[in-house]
What we know:
Blueprint: E1 5-6, H1 8-11, H2 17-27, E2 34-42, E3 45-54, E4 58-66, E5 78-85, E6 92-97, H3 98-117, E7 124-128, H4 132-144, E8 149-153, H5 157-167, E9 173-175, H6 179-185, E10 188-191, E11 210-213, H7 226-230, E12 233-236, H8 239-242, H9 247-254, H10 267-272, E13 284-287, H11 292-306
Parallel strand pairs: 1-6, 7-8, 7-10, 8-9, 10-11, 11-13, 12-13
Antiparallel strand pairs: 2-3, 3-4, 4-5, 5-6
Helix pairs in contact: 2-3, 2-11, 3-4, 3-11
Amino acid sequence: MKIPFIEFDEMDSRLTWNGLTEALAAGHRLAPASIADGFAYRGDDTLLSRAAWIDGLGVAVKSATIVPANVAKGKPMVQGGVMLFDDEFGTLEALVDFHLVTKWKTAGDSLLGAKLLARPDSKVILIVGAGTVGHNLVHAYSTAFSDARFLVWNRTHSKAVGMADDLSKTHSISAVEGLEDAVSQADIVSCATMSTEPVLRGDWLQAGQHIDLIGAYRPDMREADDTALTRSRIFVDSRATTIGHIGELKIPLAAGVITEGDILGDFHELVAGTAGRQSDDDITLFKNGGGAHLDLMTAKYILSEYGQL
């Protein structure tokens, strides 16, 4: 039997954000994943491997090479793939393009968080960061909040203008220069930056907002300050992949600003309805930490859609 390689261009236009979030929700009705991470190095180059096994769903191993010198040679810095294995027998089922899984997993994670935590009548969505993830967030959020208008802020304003121009034919979107003022207008604030220091101040937050934090992925990275955390009801996609690993929570936990008890739920509890927003005035804060279990759920969704071709 030939093992398929599912390429980005082959499947990207065939996937839907609603279909993905349904698959993510279904995956969180199963038992928690067993997760393992691994790294290998060659000078400045890195091999990152993440694996997850969910009983009833199967296995994914996501590996990527990160070779900074590739950029000067006209090659992508990050390349990789996701191997999928059958749950019952452990048989290799497919190899899926790394970038396809990462695109849909990252924005889909935040979209499911917003579906479960944001006010359904949210009308203004602020995207902080005008990179690739920011573009994907506009497409994702617009499927669940169809009447929303978007604001985009970036440290380099011209990049925010460029993103707004790129998306203006299909979305109501405008670039803004003042971040504090933009936050005051927004119902949902989604941060997708590479910042190591907080860009979002808790003093700016308004009752009823939903805050989505994506960018921080290392122990030294944060996008929101301590006040933002203490003013919010805090949720995560997974305790196992955020609390001890990502500065957004690791730093304030170590400093005693918050405790693990202040983290009120993850996707297993949110999907089950045992945690969530309690009132329209709540400020909900969701940390999108990613993780191999989400890569597994996303890749399995992609494989299921591939099977419909």
